[in-house]
Design brief:
alpha/beta, six-stranded mixed β-sheet, 15 helices, 14 strands, 39% helix
Amino acid sequence: MSSPTRVLVLNSGSSSVKYQLLDMRDGSRLATGLVERIGERTSRLVHTHVGDGGTREQNGPIADHEAALKAVAEELSRDGLGLDSPELAAIGHRVVHGGMFFSEPTLVDDSVLTEIERLIPVAPLHNPANLTGIRTAGALRPDLPQVAVFDTAFHTTMPESAARYAIDPRIADRHRIRRYGFHGTSHAYVSRETARLLGKAPSEVNVIVLHLGNGASASAVEGGRCVDTSMGMTPLEGLVMGTRSGDLDPAVIFHLERVGGMSTDEIDTLLNKRSGLFGLCGDNDMREIRRRVDEGDEAARLAFDIYIHRLKKYIGAYYAVLGRVDAVAFTAGVGENSAPVREAAVAGLEGLGLAVDSELNAVRGDGARLISPADARVAVAVVPTDEEMEIATQTYALVEKGKQRASEDS
């Protein structure tokens, strides 16, 4: 019997579960789906069997993550792709925060679960949901390898000069305060795919990756290794985002508390949920903001300009960090689909070798592509991210490596 080659990828959020089933022989997707509004009366499960293109939808209460994953298992079984399939090699889980303890994909055991749980204070919205997904999947298939793939892992290669904040290191270490970075699976995948697009090995290429979605982050990747990234101890630091402020003078928080009379929770809500593009103009959808800009809306124009100004600052900063830049890669929802953002982000940076070809930039496409002029000193690329594929690839490689070691030891 051939070795199992399928990997189920689970991304468990606080009230949702995204999933994909992939066959690692050719990287094909067999099924995808989403369970949302878990714990509400209006829960919804949308499941797509990629093989025949059929989509099914369930509506009605789904009490918790255990019920959600059981519903997912039932949908997969209806397509002959159930969790009991002997072709399933492992389940890969996205875990947002791995701290400094986890720098690579890890087989889950009790000690791993304990450490993920210890990191809840620095990822209170994400790690609890990730843990629930792991435990529930483990209960459904206790014999199957469960692999945790961490958003922060790719950034653990940052030097201490980039990862440390300039505060008393004893206090920082006691409270685990440092820059961890996020979106790591996306930055890893996109930097590697950018090198492939250039026909080079990742070790030969320096890339600035711009992951621009509702959450947004930049990274400086030197020879396949992250040396700096914009998000910090939490995903709040860095670029202007859909609802997050990004970089902010820390004294603003003290001022809002002392002078504005706001509580810590109110300030937290302001900076994470009512700031960024939404806070500036009332919209966090870049398509709507661009429509308003084109109609002469001054609030939307200011929000767009602030967004671009911050983006340019990070491009310039990471150019300086890397010394030599071979490519700037745009990815995620805004990065892949907003030609005006890409054009504005590099406008005026011709002295750094950066430019976009307006015709190439305007073309929409599904694959990785260059949008810079043929003679550009630095390539500008659009590279669709595929975090699920990255998680599946890392999961499968770890499981196969374990089988090989077991075979060699026997």
